[in-house]
Every structure is written in structure tokens, then in C-alpha cells.
Specification:
Layout (H helix, E strand, L loop, with lengths): L2 H5 L1 E4 L2 E4 H9 L2 E3 L5 E3 H12 L10 H16 L4 H7 L1
Antiparallel strand pairs: 1-2, 3-4
Helix pairs in contact: 3-4
Length: about 90
């Protein structure tokens, strides 16, 4: 993410939030695992990359692009799709 992206302003409802604040909030997320232990959002996303078989570092894609790809791959695998509704929308 470049400096311009970090300073863009996004409007949500009546509130305005900078991307920088959003990224700070994202870094403060802590996940509670099934065994009761906790891990950071960063660690969870690292495990997701491993789970779907993507590298932690890539010469041609940013870390954010890798995370986005990993989330998309996982979504395709586990997301529920109502087949009847999907047919109606086509």
C-alpha cells in the first residue's frame, strides 16, 4: 500500500475514517482459537496463506494481494451458496 492509499478518506454512514485508522484497528484484532489461546490478525492471515498454499512473500504480489487471494480461495471452498437463489440470479 502506498502513502496515498493510507491517507485516503472513506465515508461510512455519517462518520469519516482514514485508512490509517482502519489499518490500526485491523492490527488490534485478536482471535480466540478453539483451544482458548489467542492470536493476532497478522498470525491468522499467515496461517491462512499456509492453509491455501500461497507463499508468505512473493516478488510480484504485495502481502495485501496475497492475503486477498487467500481469502478468496478460502471463500470459494467454504462459503455456502443457495443453488436455487444462484439460479434465479443468473
Amino acid at each position: 500500500m502506498n502513502a496515498a492509499d493510507r491517507t485516503k478518506i472513506y465515508t461510512v454512514g455519517h462518520s469519516t475514517h482514514s485508512m490509517e485508522k482502519f489499518l490500526q484497528l485491523l492490527q488490534s484484532i485478536v482471535h480466540i482459537l478453539s483451544d482458548g489461546s489467542t492470536e493476532s490478525q497478522e498470525k491468522t492471515m499467515s496461517r491462512l496463506l499456509d492453509l491455501v498454499g500461497l507463499p508468505q512473500v512473493d516478488m510480484f504480489r504485495s502481502h495485501e494481494e496475497l492475503i486477498e487471494a487467500a481469502c478468496g480461495m478460502r471463500e470459494q471452498k467454504i462459503a455456502y451458496v443457495d443453488e436455487m437463489l444462484a439460479e434465479q440470479e443468473s
